[in-house]
Amino acid sequence: MNEDGRFEVKYKQNKYNIYEFLNNHPGGINYVKPYEEKDVTKQMVEHQHSKAAYYLLREYKDGGRHKEKDQQEDLEYLVDWDKPMLSQVASLGTKYKEWVISPVDRNLRLFGNPVLENLTITPWYVVPSVWVPIITYLIVVGSRKYVQITKDSAPIMPSVLYVGLGIVLWTLVEYSLHRWVFHMEPSGHSKVMIYLHFAIHGLHHKVPFDSRRLVFPPFPAAIIAFLLYKIISLMFHDSTRILVMAGGLTGYVIYDMIHFYLHHGTPNENSYFYHLKRYHNQHHFAHHDNGFGISSMFWDKVFGTAIYLRKLNLGIKW
Known about the structure:
Layout: E1 8-11, E2 14-17, H1 29-32, H2 41-46, H3 51-57, H4 86-89, H5 96-100, H6 114-119, H7 126-150, H8 156-182, H9 191-206, H10 218-235, H11 238-264, H12 272-285, H13 298-303
Antiparallel strand pairs: 1-2
Helix pairs in contact: 7-11, 8-11, 10-11, 11-12
Keywords: Endoplasmic reticulum, Fatty acid biosynthesis, Fatty acid metabolism, Heme, Iron, Lipid biosynthesis, Lipid metabolism, Membrane, Metal-binding, Oxidoreductase, Transmembrane, Transmembrane helix, Zinc
GO biological process, one term: fatty acid biosynthetic process
Cofactor: Zn(2+); Fe cation
């Protein structure tokens, strides 16, 4: 790998500098390194690279993707990347679904208004900074109310159990939101649904390497938290609903931190996160309609949407 920021490979006689992609490659650096300055056409076919992989490769072509001859196959000509994207996506119509699951390696601007734009950009550390104090407050208040109602002088174990229940319930909420809300299929004729889909999740599939958009901004997260609390209030009462809510929020924070780590972390082989990272990469680049679990694969197995990873002869190093 050259120190000048170049790592070239050849594909169908064209050169591609994939240096910026090396740390994000689902197959890891160690699978790619042997092919520096070599032709990878045969290897991409043999390793069954997805349509998304071929599309993403165009990002790194020497001279830029705008010099592609087959412009009709390149959906980026349908939008202007120098302008806010949210105002453009509805015009894609029936092409929207294909475009949004065809990844590019860029940062995306959602709004033209700088205030609105900044509200959509969230560094990973904002999530625990906002929610951990709230979780702590709910646990303290919930435990005190539990003591007042039950006269139990040792509320630690019940509090732990209810918080733990909330964490478990979150894993189901996480799966349900990701599958049935984030991955809803908007009609190409419904501009409102396209806007909504793109704003809440579609943009993440379009620009999966944009680190500013990997965790949920506090405002939409607060809306989901409010709805979750209303549901919990129907199932639990008094102190228990506060403790279960604290657990649900804890599960959410864990989920968001795991999601960020799966995109930018380098887990060791055979670790839990190593398998989760492989799993999530498959969801992004090959199996968009499966693999909805982020922090756990459990509900995918329950609902029949699990992705089965093939065994590798060599462990992946990111």
